[in-house]
Amino acid sequence: MGDYLSVLNPEQRQAVLHTGKPLLILAGAGSGKTRVITTKIAWLIREQGLDPRSILAVTFTNKAAREMSERARLIDDRASAAMLRTFHSFGAWFLRRNGTLGGLDSGFVIYDDDDQISLLSGIMENASRAEVRETAGSISRAKDYFLGPADPELDRINYQPKFRRIYAAYEERMAKIGNVDFGDLIKKPVEILRENPEVASRFKNRFRVIMVDEYQDANIAQFELLKTISGTETYVCVVGDDDQSIYRFRGAEVRNILEFPDRFPGTEIIRLERNYRSTALILQAASSVVARNQGRLGKTLRSEKGEGKLPVMAFLPDQDEEAAYCASLIANAVKKGGRYDEWAILYRTNAQSLGFETEFLRRGIPYRMVGSLKFYEREEIKDALALLSVLVNPRDEVAFRRMVNKPSRGVGPATVDRIIGYSEEFGSDLLKAAGALLPELGTKARTGIETFNTVLEEGKALLAGEKLEGKRKRGKIRDQVPLKETLAAGEGLSSIVVKLIKDSGIADYHLEHDEIAGNQRLNNLQELANAASLYALSMEGLLEFLEHIELDRSLAEETAENSKGVFPNGTVTLITLHNTKGLEFKKVIITGVEQGVFPREDKKGEDIEEERRLFYVGATRAMDELYFCCCALRRLYGRTTPTGPSLFLREIDKGGIRVIGNAPYGFGVGTGKPGNRMPAVSPGGRWRQGDRVFHDDHGYGAVTGIRESDEGPVVSVHFDTGHETRFLSEHQSSRFTKISGD
DNA sequence: CAATTCGGGATCTGC
DNA sequence: TCCCGAATTG
């Protein structure tokens, strides 16, 4: 037996060697599940003589898919022929080949949330922005649950009677356009497979082994997809951890993992409970919180690393101090010989990253931000992508609307509506409809449409004629471009990206429109062109490029990161808690662990359980050191609000942590070091008699007293208007702003 | 049609 | 606080 098996512990080996019945691997954080999956793939090929092409491994993120592919290949090269994809990319792959069975042309573009909202706002004409957003969310959720507009159960998603009608209209519109949204990437394949048993059996025969990673994040539609492509002979193996299910908000269904044994009869379960990543004290802190959840299978993680250092709970006055504290921790550690890349700063929402960025820039601490680089959400990038979308799919109403009059070409909304109404006669082809409508338009609109059409036609010609005259044409185009040297066409597909953004005037538009960031915007467009250079200059290449962008937003991050230069000690990672899934760091600081921030104020019931799992995920990223930061004041929505320690901090075993700074009154701990007391905390936490306060309704006032009650400290306030009030410092503090005192 | 102003809402989380 | 869309204005 190969020595690649000897590095496994008994449970891992058991999981790798398991065959026959369906298998559910319950893998705690840091228990080596990726190693198990990759080893299993290699083992199946090597020892079981399986054709790699008959193995399908599904993950949720592209990062995970890439990592898995690399690691499997390291053990056995043939693993590269196995199909390793995310659920969504598998769906897209399926639809490109079999979409016609469901009335879908293979040249579809994937709509993201914004596009979805744009499309929907055309249907819900009088609705507010928020309402459209909400409805778009409902439609996505419905698709996650595999519910169509006619489904009786649809009420559970959105009980409004009109929702069905809107959902149906949306589907109809989308079908006419010939594109798909994220939900369709899962839902449509299932529908096609159900309606075409011969296709389904082809898949059931092709895939002898199907593995699903992070199974706790699967939604109902994804479960259905798994069901429809796995036959009686297919070996199904799912790996997951119910404690790490953090995507309920987008339809993930923990029940999938809880009920897996029922849905796949004969399932065997293997638990991986040895944790190789974190110290025992870190696991203890993480587990003591997640253990409060009701709906969980329950498992005991044991550390293989020894007790380690006490996790730290740092209480800080405000978010500026929080950033300063983190910066000092890191700077000191690096001074002692540590590396920047040992550290990660975790936060609940992207908005929290700003303070750290400022502080790190000021102190010269190198950092990188993961995930939040909303590169593809930038206006100029979306514009360029919309142009490319119209090129591959001239029925793309959303993209057409966005770009036909941008920059302004005298094509007003009335004209656009006419074109769209007229497009029926041209199989919804908007470019053809616009062309046909030309004679009826005024001079301004006519020249505008002509320009737009010409740009796209030339683009199309460039795509189609590449083999014959690609080189010659490229030269010519470069000459006619008015713009400075800033945008350079490179290899392959990048030439067409550059051509479109120049000729359409979008590059100039952004350069001039935004005096401050104009150049940056141009750089971003260049970045997009650079990314495109990896793809072939053809329709297929363009489709691949667009699909990659929609499904894997990390693409631009990597290029942007490379240009930053090399740091000898690496960079600190700034990252949202959600984005840390699957990652690990030596030292982790979880920031903003305050009630109202994490968990957010509006979370309760099952949502709180999900936040707890998120806490668990974050804490178990840490290998050696773990810190929690909790501020007494935080600026939220531009307003400074008093905040209290998160529920989760209260749930941690106080024996297993070290406290730094002033824990609020009633928190249950003094200061970390006995005998070295910090100044006594005031009753009522941050409130003291004599403090000046401000209240939105009553204006200015002063704290007149604090007394204890069953529910915690009660603060009395006398307003300058004469009005008297009392509030529970614990719960209602957020309505009062302290303006003096300390 | 573009520039300016005003007011309200937003910040979750992400394939 | 900031950003975006709608309304207002030139």
Describe, in plain words, how this protein is organized in 3D.
- With about 750 residues, the protein is α/β, with parallel strands linked by helices.
- It contains 28 helices and 24 strands.
- A hairpin with a 2-residue loop joins β17 and β18.
- α20 packs across α21 (about 465-480) and α20 packs antiparallel against α22.
- The radius of gyration is 29 Å and the shape is globular.
- Mean pLDDT is about 85; it is low at about 465-485, about 560-565 and about 670-685.
- It binds a DNA duplex (15 and 10 nucleotides) through α4.
Provide a brief overview of the structure.
The chain has 742 residues and is α/β, with parallel strands linked by helices.
How would you describe this structure in keywords?
DNA-binding, alpha/beta, 742 residues
Estimated radius of gyration: 29 Å
Strand content: 5-15%
Number of DSSP strands? 24
Number of helices: 28
Task: Flag low-confidence runs.
Answer: 466-484, 558-563, 670-684
For the residues shown, what is the average pLDDT? 85
Strand order within the widest beta sheet: 13-14-12-15-16-11-19
Shape category: globular
The assigned structural class equals alpha/beta
Distance between the termini: 68 Å
Question: Could you give a short account of the major beta sheet?
Answer: 7 strands, parallel
Give the helix proportion (percent range).
40-55%
